[in-house]
Amino acid sequence: MDFTSYEQDRAVDTATSSSGDALYFTIGDLAREFDVTLRALRFYEDKGLLAPRREGLTRLYTPSDRSRLSIILKGKKLGFTLAEIKAMVALREGTATMSGLALTREKCVEQLGLLEQQKAEIEEAIGELKQMIASYPVRTAA
Question: Reduced to 3 states, what is the DSSP secondary structure of residue 8?
Answer without folding.
Answer: helix
